[in-house]
Write a structure and sequence with these properties.
It is built from 15 helices and 13 strands. By secondary structure, the protein is an alpha/beta fold. It folds into 2 domains: about 220 residues, Rossmann fold (3-Layer(aba) Sandwich), CATH 3.40.50; about 110 residues, Helicase, Ruva Protein, domain 3 (Orthogonal Bundle), CATH 1.10.8.80. β4 and β5 form a beta hairpin. It is globular.
Length: about 325
């Protein structure tokens, strides 16, 4: 039986191997890749937001190529229907010549599901993902169909202010473990992108991890201990986003704060980040690092915030400033 130290070392080696395969195709975006891998190892789903052309779809496809898992892509459009995602019952002839219904699975039946431009479909279609994301299964005509593990949705979206998009329902947004912002490349990265895309064909990433290995790494991450005062810090950060009795910035700029899923994301991400840094315990720094992608999409801004041009990340930064790591001692 390998020791904890050996398991943690193997965890980091496997992750670095996968990163190296991704780097064969993807230029830069180191933090985006890091946050995506944390999401996958946490068993969650990720929402990537950025303007068109930044390589969001290519990034997800590259990660899928680096994993020995079934990849499925759904291109969201305004005319897409829920049955186009989850599947439907079709009429077939059985051996005796009688007609019967048979379930025809949709593209949701994959391990890595790319929901491309998810905010270009109507809310009705977007909601078709809710059960799959939460329950890892779908129900059609009263029959439940389980999805294969591991299962995660990596969705891309264009900023809401662009034409032809629909805001995602809050209930669906909350089911994303991380919301990851994809920003434009800098000069050196852009030059490298031009070289790779206009010269010889770049390398194809080879599978670096299997599904069973991902599930094993996920189980190991959940075993990472977290001290009670660090766990309480994550909970206090979430409570500080509530406008009723939270931080002053929340009372001023928020209509609603984070749900309990925000606290779960902070702790799970903290455990994975600790392992990647060679530690077998969660530190305050791990919680703070996870705060932005874990909380930014769980904050509902009020009119004053919109009028002043406040961004969720600015509010998260203020919440971090106003929330001390150690709670004040009670009298």
């Amino acid at each position: 039986m390998p020791t904890i130290e050996e398991q943690a070392s193997r965890f980091r080696d496997s992750l670095e191997k996968l990163r190296a395969e991704i780097a064969k195709v993807i230029v830069g975006h180191g933090e985006v890749v890091r946050q995506l891998l944390v999401t996958i190892l946490a068993g969650g789903h990720a929402l990537l937001e950025g303007v068109p052309g930044l390589g969001k779809t290519l990034l997800v496809r590259t990660i899928a190529n680096g994993l020995s898992l079934k990849f499925s892509r759904i291109q969201f459009t305004p005319d897409l229907m829920p049955a186009d995602i989850i599947g439907t019952n079709i009429v077939v002839d059985d051996p005796s010549g009688r007609k019967s219904f048979q379930f025809q699975p949709g593209p949701i039946f994959g391990n890595v599901v790319l929901a491309d431009e998810i905010n270009r479909a109507t809310p009705k279609t977007q909601s078709a993902l809710l059960e799959a994301m939460q329950e890892h299964g779908i129900t059609v005509s009263g029959v439940r169909h389980a999805l294969d593990e591991p299962f995660f949705v990596l969705a891309t979206q264009n900023p809401i202010e662009m034409e032809g998009t629909y805001p995602l329902p809050e209930a669906q947004v909350d089911r994303f473990f991380f919301k990851i912002e994809v920003k434009p490349s800098n000069l050196a990265e852009l030059v490298q992108v031009i070289d790779r895309t206009t010269g010889q064909e770049s390398e194809t990433p080879k599978p670096a991890l299997s599904g069973s290995e991902i599930l094993g790494m996920r189980a190991l991450a959940r075993e990472v201990p977290i001290a009670s005062h660090v766990k309480e810090y994550a909970a206090r950060l979430v409570l500080a986003t509530h406008p009723g009795d939270g931080a002053s910035v929340a009372r001023k700029y928020l209509r609603y704060g984070s749900s309990p899923r925000g606290a779960q994301a902070l702790v799970l991400a903290g455990k994975i980040l600790a392992l990647t840094k060679g530690r077998y315990n969660v530190a305050f720094a791990d919680i703070r690092e996870a705060a932005y992608p874990a909380l930014r999409h769980r904050l509902i801004l009020n009119f004053e915030a919109e009028a002043e041009g406040m961004r969720p990340d600015q509010i998260v930064a203020k919440v971090l400033e106003e929330t001390p790591e150690m709670a004040a001692a009670k009298a």
